[in-house]
């Protein structure tokens, strides 16, 4: 029922890419777990659709159970599915699928021909195209970095898609760094690590997305360095992405860092106005198939491109909101309507909260002084708020983990990682706690949008 309602409410492509792959995995203690196939889709759903799903669920579930999102446990079958058999025969649950489509439908969505190129991303784009071409690696590894939402995943998936299309026999694997860790850990547990290593190392093209996730994971980094070396030696192309440059990823093993710097490092910078405008036009042209004769007036596009400057991800999200608030309801897309719909999100994207604001706001929310919050005291009523403040600093600012640690009286980044994990877990486990953190988060962001 919830699923059917959702299908009517959201973009059919989103529905196909994300919702149909969700599974109800557990139903205990009055909570229902939804399992996503991987961390990437879990994060996407959490960011884009989870609120809607929860609201619908509450509407239809007589027991009003809580929903939580998890990643489906990977077993060895999934490893086989992700990292294909070196003989080229797909194994595991996708045994019947032809290799060319084994990458999954979401790869169809991210292609070179729908990646719009501008001055901020043309180097990364050109290098990505060269990496897709093969067969010999040109620069190894290719390391693409840039902040959230600027198109890294799009490029990596486009490489995988293109390589598969043009050389179906090339052994290609795309993994998020989180997948890599999970595959690696479960292979170790199941004592299949030799097999896992062999599979990974016999690839022709390996793409690992969001490699900053390996920060602080020494054992996996070690394994990763070995994998990297052996792939480079065998002439396979490795492509990596991260939200920071190799030098900025603290706690990266020096050897790993020097390998990364030894390849080709390129950055995707934030898109300028022209590129943002082109990305919008391009998306609208793509959507014209679905919405017959879709036409968005230029002033609306100019307005959107001018106002939503954070990243293409937010820009396209804003476009979706405008379309769902107008043509989907049978209303014309006017500048007035667009301004109305966007006033909320535009305000939200302009909100800038600093680590200092967060510390101050969190301390007062819990009735502590800022000194208490930053102190070394370990009593629970101080530790928890301190962890919440670190968690919010990670969520609401662009500060890196080491930078946040610095601002909390010179603590180590691992303390911040621990805090973020702890708070994430508590939020997942305890709705009241989640509510509290959400209340604080709102008060912090509201405070600052009023100040403008
Ligand atoms: P990242 O992985 O860097 O966080 P993504 O690759 O997920 O970012 O991009 C976020 C969204 O923006 C995706 O829907 C992607 O297709 C879109 N996008 C980003 N850059 C471009 C671009 N240059 N052209 C077209 N779409 C883009
Ligand atoms: Mg990404």
Topology (SSEs and partners):
Layout: H1 2-9, H2 12-19, E1 23-28, E2 31-36, H3 39-48, H4 50-60, E3 66-71, H5 76-82, H6 106-109, H7 122-133, E4 142-145, H8 152-166, E5 172-176, H9 177-189, H10 193-201, E6 205-209, H11 218-233, E7 237-242, H12 254-262, E8 264-267, H13 273-287, H14 298-307, H15 312-325, H16 335-350, H17 355-365, H18 370-374, H19 380-396, H20 401-407, H21 413-429, H22 431-451
Parallel strand pairs: 2-3, 4-7, 4-8, 5-6, 6-7
Antiparallel strand pairs: 1-2
Helix pairs in contact: 7-8, 9-10, 13-14, 13-15, 14-16, 15-16, 17-19, 19-21, 20-21, 21-22
Bound molecules: adenosine-5'-diphosphate and magnesium ion (MG).
What is the helix fraction of residues, given as a range? 55-70%
Strand content: 5-15%
Rg, Cα atoms, Å:
23 Å
The overall strand count is: 8
| SSE order, one letter for each helix or strand | HHEEHHEHHHEHEHHEHEHEHHHHHHHHHH
């Amino acid at each position: 029922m919830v699923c059917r309602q959702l299908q009517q409410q959201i973009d059919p492509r989103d529905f196909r890419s994300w919702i149909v792959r969700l599974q109800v995995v557990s139903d205990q203690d009055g909570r229902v777990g939804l399992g996503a196939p991987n961390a990437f889709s879990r994060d996407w759903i959490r960011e884009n659709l989870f609120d809607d799903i929860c609201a619908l669920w509450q509407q239809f579930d007589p027991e009003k159970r809580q929903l939580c999102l998890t990643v489906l446990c990977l077993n060895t079958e999934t490893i086989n599915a992700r990292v294909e058999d070196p003989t080229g025969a797909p194994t595991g649950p996708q045994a019947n699928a032809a290799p060319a489509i084994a990458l999954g439908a979401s790869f169809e969505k991210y292609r070179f021909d729908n990646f719009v190129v501008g001055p901020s991303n043309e180097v990364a784009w050109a290098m990505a195209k060269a990496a897709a071409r093969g067969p010999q690696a040109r620069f190894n590894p290719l390391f693409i970095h840039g902040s959230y939402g600027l198109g890294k995943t799009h490029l990596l998936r486009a490489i995988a898609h293109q390589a598969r299309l043009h050389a179906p026999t090339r052994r290609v694997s795309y993994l998020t760094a989180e997948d890599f860790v999970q595959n690696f850990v479960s292979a170790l547990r199941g004592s299949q690590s030799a097999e896992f290593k062999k599979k990974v190392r016999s690839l022709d093209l390996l793409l690992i997305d969001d490699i900053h996730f390996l920060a602080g994971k020494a054992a996996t980094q070690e394994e990763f360095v070995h994998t990297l070396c052996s792939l480079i030696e065998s002439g396979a192309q490795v492509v990596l992405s991260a939200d920071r440059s190799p030098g900025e990823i603290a706690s990266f093993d020096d050897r790993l860092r020097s390998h990364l710097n030894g390849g080709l490092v390129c950055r995707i910078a934030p898109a300028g106005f022209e590129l943002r405008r082109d990305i919008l036009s391009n998306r609208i042209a793509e959507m014209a198939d679905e919405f017959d004769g879709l036409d968005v007036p230029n002033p609306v596009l100019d307005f959107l491109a001018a106002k939503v400057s954070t990243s293409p991800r937010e820009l396209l999200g804003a476009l979706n909101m405008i379309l769902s608030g107008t043509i989907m309801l049978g209303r014309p897309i006017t500048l007035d309507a667009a301004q109305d719909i966007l006033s909320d999100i535009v305000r939200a994207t302009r909100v800038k909260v600093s680590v200092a604001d967060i510390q101050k706001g969190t301390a007062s929310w819990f009735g502590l002084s800022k000194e208490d919050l930053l102190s070394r005291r370990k009593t629970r009523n101080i530790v928890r708020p301190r962890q919440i403040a670190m968690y919010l600093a990670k969520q609401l600012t662009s500060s890196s983990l080491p930078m946040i640690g610095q601002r909390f009286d010179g603590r180590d980044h691992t303390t911040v990682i621990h805090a973020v994990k702890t708070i994430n877990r508590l939020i997942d486990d305890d709705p009241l706690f989640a509510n509290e953190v959400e209340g604080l988060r709102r008060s912090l962001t509201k405070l600052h949008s009023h100040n403008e």
